[in-house]
Hints:
Layout: H1 8-23, E1 28-30, H2 38-48, H3 60-64, H4 69-81, H5 87-96, E2 102-104, H6 113-120
Parallel strand pairs: 1-2
Amino acid sequence: MEDAFITPEREKSLKFLLQLLDTSQKAVLLRGPNRSGKTFFLRRLQHHIKRDWKFYKIDKADVASGGDPIRLWTMAINESLGGKHSLESRVMLWSRMDKTAIIVVEDVHTVSREALYDLGS
Length: 121
């Protein structure tokens, strides 16, 4: 069923994303309007990436109820890893270990420009 959604444009974007992940030393932020294919890319990435990668799910209801997506993502990571380090220190550590964080922000238009800039820097 999912293969029906593999258009040439999406396949080209997926190849670009995989290349970016191979060469990037920073977090990668996937953004786009509702139903633009962010979840599709995550599912396809799982077939192409290393098995030791971790994905963190943020409940859409938490975001819809006014939760800041960046704070919710931080909480998801801290909960799974014991909450011993800040998000910034984790991303720096992952970078030194040649790991890349993949961040998908649903409804990115609700997140302030400053929060997105802080996340990417």
